[in-house]
TrEMBL record:
Annotated GO biological process: galactose metabolic process
Organism: [Actinomadura] parvosata subsp. kistnae
GO cellular component terms attached to this protein's record: cytosol
Every NAD-dependent epimerase/dehydratase domain range: 13-238
Catalysed conversion reaction: UDP-alpha-D-glucose = UDP-alpha-D-galactose
Protein's name in the database: UDP-glucose 4-epimerase
Matches recorded under Pfam families: Epimerase
Length: 304
């Protein structure tokens, strides 16, 4: 938290759903950077209450406390998962939005989305911030709900919200040995245990991997983001250089000298095939551009 007298670099562990704690912390604060969340795709539908409690209810409690104490600016850790499948184009029908991939297709190893009008193959394209939201799992739904709640708070109070839609963040101090971590952390945990990383589908699904230090820089830039009073403005926080999940697994394995990744053909229904961002708005409006390249970042992460 940042107050009028400068930065408070002290730490205090608390639950974002605890209004009493927030009432003690927020007086004199100018801006809140909201990172607290339950992350990851989850295990099964039993996780739904926790995603709703931490991500949705927790954000509502925070926003209500901010309103009580006159805090006027929020930097929200949002996510690219709210887009669902990325942007696609059909040779015959132009830009289209494929629906969720069917269990039958996934079981048969048909991982690529097809045109919903003609059934032909599609070309992926970069997705921009004005793309419609289409969350495909509980985590994605909860992150979109956070944006909606924050936008409601901004309209009611005249506050400003900078929503940073993180793409696949990786880097030091990521959680280990948990299914709720990102795919990079899961692969690193497997390699640390001497196991080959298990790569789902065919390993060719595209993601934009962005280093956590670049994400930290984006948060600093967002503290003074050009957001009018009463509004929410969103930015993709991404490197702008996509890589496949298989490439990422191979880079980590090579750096650690571990076993080569094993492509399993397994799938998760909540996963999307390709999601690649355009970082142009963040560069133009926040002055943010990712600095840590894929090769350098993965070498560091593999050894962290």
């Amino acid at each position: 938290m940042c107050g009028a007298d400068g930065w408070d670099v002290g730490g205090r562990r608390a639950d974002v759903r605890d209004a009493d704690v927030l009432d003690r912390l927020l007086p004199g604060v100018d801006v809140v950077v909201h990172q607290a969340a339950k992350v990851g795709l989850g295990v099964d539908v039993a996780d739904l209450p926790e995603y709703a409690s931490v991500n949705v209810y927790g954000t509502a409690v925070l926003l209500a406390a901010m309103a009580r104490h006159g805090v006027g600016r929020l930097v929200l850790a949002s996510s690219m998962v709210i887009y669902g499948e990325g942007r696609y184009a059909c040779a015959a029908h132009g830009q289209v939005r494929p629906g969720p991939r069917s269990v039958h297709d996934l079981e048969q190893g048909r991982f690529e989305p097809v045109c919903p009008r003609c059934g032909e193959s599609l070309r992926w394209a970069v997705i921009e911030e004005d793309a419609p939201a289409d969350p495909r799992n509980a985590y994605a739904t909860s992150k979109l709900a956070q944006e909606h709640l924050a936008a409601n708070w901004a309209r009611e109070t005249g506050g400003r919200v900078a929503a940073l839609r993180y793409h696949n963040v990786y880097g030091p101090r990521m959680p280990r040995d948990t299914p709720y971590a990102g795919v990079a952390a899961i692969f690193r945990s497997e390699l640390a245990a001497g196991r080959a990383p298990r790569v789902f589908e065919d390993g060719r699904q595209l993601r934009d991997f962005v280093h956590v230090r670049d994400v930290a820089r984006a948060n600093l830039a967002a503290l003074s983001a050009p957001v009018p009073p009463g509004e929410l403005r969103a930015w993709n926080i991404a490197s702008g250089t996509p890589h496949t999940v298989g490439e990422m697994a191979q880079a980590l394995a090579a750096e650690r000298g571990g076993p080569s990744p094993r492509v399993t053909g397994e799938y998760r229904l909540g996963d999307v095939r390709h999601i690649v961002a355009s970082p142009r708005r963040a560069e133009a409006e926040l002055g943010f551009r990712a600095e840590i390249g894929f090769e350098v970042g993965m070498k560091e992460f593999a050894r962290s």
